[in-house]
Design a protein that fits this description.
This protein has 365 residues and is α+β, with helices and mostly antiparallel strands. The protein is built from 8 helices and 16 strands. The chain folds into 3 domains: 79 residues, Helix Hairpins (Orthogonal Bundle), CATH 1.10.287.110; 139 residues, HSP40/DNAj peptide-binding domain (Sandwich); 92 residues, Urease metallochaperone UreE, N-terminal domain (HSP40/DNAj peptide-binding domain), CATH 2.60.260.20. The chain binds zinc ion (2 copies).
Length: 365
Amino acid sequence: MAKKDYYKILNLSRDASQTDVKKSYRRFARKYHPDVNPGDDIAVQRFKEVKEAYEVLSNPHLRDQYDTYGRTDLDSGDVSHGTTYGGADSVEVNNDVFETDVDSDIYEVSTGEDPYSQPGGGPEPGSDLSFELTINFENAVYGAEREINVPTFRICEACSGSGSAPGTKTAECKTCQGTGQVFERDRYSGEMSLVQCKACYGRGKIIQTPCMRCNGNGSFQTYEKILIKIPPGVDNGSRLRIHGKGTPGVRGGPPGDLYIVIKIKDHEIFERHGNEILCEAFITFPQAVFGTEIEVPTLDGTAKMKIPPETQPGTIFRLRGKGIVDMHTGARGDQHVKISIVVPKNLSERQRGLLYKYARTTGEL
Ligand SMILES: [Zn+2]
Ligand SMILES: [Zn+2]
């Protein structure tokens, strides 16, 4: 299967919410729709791509696979047969490289309400939650397990999440006549569009007698410890989806998902560029002239590297397969070593004399 960047096709960032996916799909589907572009084969092709991208990114299971493996042909996309790819429960990690002293700061980046949820009395899916998790360079390279505390909501047992005191009824929202949506004029374009009703938060109903236990919220905020398995090769901005750990659904609706957005700390030696790493190695002027063999740090320890005679500063050598394992393909990137020349300090009189003599013969001094 040819590798397509579905996010690019829909002009989305990798942490786009379901709402963003829907919005973007609608925009591009309208733009490339065959009816709008009669006889335009490129538009037809684009339309197909947009549709395919939407089919994957709007399906949590397929998107998950795609995020983790870069493709979705691993199975039929049927969630019910028990195999989940990606997410916290299934990604294999290298168990040798656990670190416990990593920065455990985790904070909420955004929460997304789904404005497309149906108002009224039916089940409503919960929102997705997104968190940023900062890990160190090695954890990103080798994978790791991290236990994190995430805020979660526990549905109020007293009112079953409705927010209304047991035995009481809700009233239809007068602002939106129970539809959950109202027309609003855009301040700049003057266009009218449907937006979520602020009076009832899109539910279409107003709680008349709030549940005493939860003050009408329908849920309580609490914290839950979740074990996150970080797969080897994650990069800055990689997203891990944990099914069902977003906010709970309302009236039997499914819960949203939790997204862990990975942020990686800089390494003191290695600079990362995708799956390639770059480091600097220092040699002396004579070593550069005559050539030498040096030892350079690698992710696995050290490696010996031959420096050919007359190597110029700034030359970059490649250590094949010493980079980072690709999360999707399993192929390992390369390490690049940039050569710098060090100028000797604290030379003895004799050494200075010899160097001076050398410089005189070349006419440099
Ligand atoms: Zn309650
Ligand atoms: Zn309303």
